[in-house]
Write a structure and sequence with these properties.
heterodimer, A: alpha+beta, 5-stranded mixed β-sheet, 7 strands, globular, B: 6-stranded mixed β-sheet, 6-stranded mixed β-sheet, 28 helices, 17 strands
Chain lengths: 92, 629
């Protein structure tokens, strides 16, 4: 099993708050290696349509953004990491 | 000492060739803080009622905020305001870059221009030296030609804003250009400058801005930059900038396609942020003091040759791309370049071109009037339409009015697919299944502009969260039925719309870019603290700034009432297409907004605002906000 720390961006938290479904900023999830981002979201009841962008950081990298690599919904995760989920961002 | 401000207002009367400097009014500072607050107050007070937008007496106002030009993230916003030729009502537009900072360093928080120059001219502002100079040699030139020439003539350290041919010819959606690719795009602001015979304004400032606590501001400024860098969005959002949202909009059925006939296309991957990075981008480009440079400066290659252009941003990708069925990223970038050179707002231009293409397709505009055959998705057709608009040739003279007034002249039911509110073309978010977003567009003071309200994410959350039998996980995973996004609920959208309408323009008051807050989540407390160190005054973001933002909303509504005959509820209605035509394809297939829902949302919205049934602020509301109108 691997541990994925899900971190919700402020834009996503805001949307959940506004739609009456407030969530915590971070939550640890234990999954088997090879689980996709999409499946992790589904397991958490987070609709992928609300997450246009996701970034993966190594574990213990704190909250620094510059260690992140952008990942797609079908990316399989093989080791521990921080998965940051971004809500939709206004285009300008 | 007035901390945080340059302390002066510059007044230029082009007709009398009078230039005056006066102390910045304390009343403006105390009651309107800066930027958009200043311009709304000044336009209401100083514009002669019912003056034509192209009358010399229409004011052209430039204003910065108390945080403009200071050591903090993205403090380079410049705010412009005038009576809009597109809507006939209140109009403002802002841009990044470096111009406003230099205006403030030159000593001016506010510049008010009235009158009309006797001949094509440009305004030179070099600290205390302010001159109106002949610009005959620049008239007819493109925006970047003029910017380059003036920098060569005066020096690289001068910041230049210009209009293109579209502004000279009073196209109702002409913009102001600056810094080889930044624009104040909306409401026809460039046309008003053109009507005053002003081709360019050039500024250089070398003075300092007094701040209450320089050391504290420096420390807090550094902390704020560091906070930006710590945000996950810092590396997540910056690489693609606003274009990063393209696929999401397509997936949720909000990407304007074929003049808003539908809201989804099958080539989003070809016109998105990744396509820009792969095909166009040379370098990131940021505004003054910005830590998240969203500009993508790049090179486009088409049959027209090779051009260099900043952009396209999301709005341009959607409105000159999918909305015109142009599916080639190089082609879209070329149309962006053409608009920049001619001085056209890419948002309105995209909607006007798509309107023209639909008129042509339906036989409402002839080949003779158009000057050639034109087709959806054809780069040469789109460039042709943009050029005849800017020169006002043939049908271009009618299209230059914008879709509302063009539809009135073209007739034959074309008003049903003229996509605008109050005369301002709709921007890049199709909203037939996004009632909050639609209400935001409908009720914006300047017309259909996303900068005033953006609640699309909440609309989608409501839609997909409201029906547990149709999770979007199923919709976008293999074998999903793409046509079953549930209808979004309109019942609870008003509080969200109000909040967004107060929040997004609030940054225009301070003189900073909103993207640090909106896109990477910089906390509002940073703005409160920076404001304190700059001005020496405490500011509560919610109680003070958002309350002022709300006050400005009422003030601008009263400006529209004063200036637009029969202004009221009917000016808040969305385009007929959105209430009469179900979306024919894509994830929101079948959805539209019934007029009964529109009326219900407006009733709720007006009541929450303290406006009467016709959408006019009540005397009690005005009094509660200290507006003596």
């Amino acid at each position: 099993m691997i541990t994925i720390t899900l971190r919700l961006s402020e834009s996503l938290l805001c949307i959940f708050r506004d739609s009456g479904q407030p969530r915590k900023e971070t939550v640890d999830v234990r999954v088997t290696p090879g689980t996709t981002v999409r499946d992790i979201l589904a397991g958490q009841g987070i609709n992928p349509l609300l997450v246009p962008m996701a970034g993966l950081s190594p574990p213990m990298s704190g909250t620094r953004g510059n260690t992140q690599k952008r990942v797609g919904m079908d990316t399989a995760l093989d080791s521990d990491g921080i998965l940051t989920l971004y809500g939709p961002l206004a285009g300008g | 000492m007035l901390y945080g401000y340059a302390g002066h207002t510059l007044r230029i009367d082009l007709s009398t060739e009078t230039i005056d400097t006066e102390l910045l009014k304390q009343e403006w500072v105390d009651n309107y803080i800066g930027g958009r607050g200043f311009t709304a107050k000044i336009l209401y007070d100083e514009n002669p009622p019912n003056v034509d937008p192209f009358d010399p007496e229409n004011r052209f106002i430039i204003a910065m905020g108390p945080l403009s030009g200071l050591f903090l993230p993205a403090s380079g916003k410049t705010h412009f305001c005038t009576k809009s030729p597109a809507t006939g009502g209140y109009g403002d537009s802002n841009m990044g870059g470096h111009f406003g900072v230099n205006m403030k360093y030159a000593g001016y928080d506010v510049t008010i221009i009235q009158g009309k120059a006797a001949r094509p001219s440009y305004i030179l502002i070099d600290d205390d030296r302010v001159e109106v100079r002949p610009a005959g040699e620049y008239w007819g030139k493109t925006s970047t030609q003029v910017e380059e020439a003036l920098k060569q003539e005066l020096g690289e350290d001068f910041q230049v804003l210009t209009i293109g041919q579209a502004g000279e010819n009073r196209v109702n959606f002409a913009c102001i250009s600056h810094d080889f690719g930044r624009q104040a795009g909306r409401i026809g602001i460039g046309a008003v400058l053109g009507s005053k015979n002003i081709k360019a304004i050039v500024a250089r400032g070398t003075k300092s801005i007094p701040v209450f606590d320089p050391k504290g501001l420096l420390k807090k400024g550094k902390e704020t930059y560091a906070a930006c860098r710590e945000k996950p969005g810092f590396t997540g959002w910056t690489p693609e900038g606003t274009a990063g949202i393209t696929n999401w909009c397509n997936d949720v059925g909000a990407l304007p396609t074929r003049n808003f006939q539908t809201s989804n296309c099958d080539y989003a991957d070809d016109i998105n942020g990744k396509a820009i990075l792969k095909e166009l981008k040379i370098t990131d480009k940021g505004c003054f003091s910005c830590p998240i440079p969203c500009g993508k400066y790049g090179r486009a290659k088409t049959q027209f040759g090779e051009v260099y252009v900043e952009g396209p941003e999301y709005e341009t990708l959607s409105l000159l791309g999918s909305n015109c069925e142009l599916s080639d990223i190089h082609g879209i970038a070329h149309t962006n370049y053409v608009c920049d050179e001619l001085g056209l707002d890419t948002c309105s231009a995209g909607v006007v071109v798509s309107f023209a293409l639909e008129c042509y397709e339906k036989g409402l505009i002839s080949k003779q009037d158009m000057g050639r055959d034109v087709q959806w998705g054809d780069l040469e057709s789109i460039v042709h339409i943009l050029e005849i608009i800017s020169r006002r040739e043939g049908i271009g003279d009618v299209l230059a009015l914008g879709v509302r007034d063009a539809a009135e002249k073209i007739g034959h039911g074309s008003d049903k697919f003229a996509i605008h509110v109050k005369g301002l073309e709709w921007t890049g978010y199709e909203a037939r299944n996004a009632p909050g977003m639609m209400l935001g567009y409908m009720t914006a003071d300047v017309g259909a502009h996303h900068a005033r309200c953006w609640v699309l994410g909440s609309d989608v959350a409501t839609a997909v969260g409201g029906n547990k039998d149709a999770t979007v996980h199923d919709l976008i995973s293999g074998g999903a039925d793409f046509n079953t996004i549930p209808k979004a609920d309109h019942k609870n959208v008003v509080p969200l719309v109000l909040k967004s309408q107060h929040l997004r323009p609030a940054f225009d008051i301070l003189g900073t870019c909103r993207l640090q807050y909106m896109e990477i989540g910089l906390e509002t407390r940073y703005y409160e603290e920076l404001y304190y160190y700059a001005t020496g005054k405490r500011l509560d973001f919610e109680k003070d700034l958002l309350r002022l933002s709300e006050k400005i909303w009422h003030l601008n509504r009263m400006f529209n009432k004063r200036e637009i005959p029969d202004f009221g509820r009917k000016y808040d209605y969305p385009p007929a297409r959105f209430t009469q035509e179900p979306i024919p394809s894509g994830p929101n297939k079948g959805h539209f907004v019934d007029m009964a829902v529109i009326e219900e949302m407006l009733d709720t919205y007006y009541a929450a605002r303290g406006w009467d049934d016709n959408g006019i602020p009540t005397p009690e509301t005005l009094e509660a906000h200290g507006l003596d109108i």
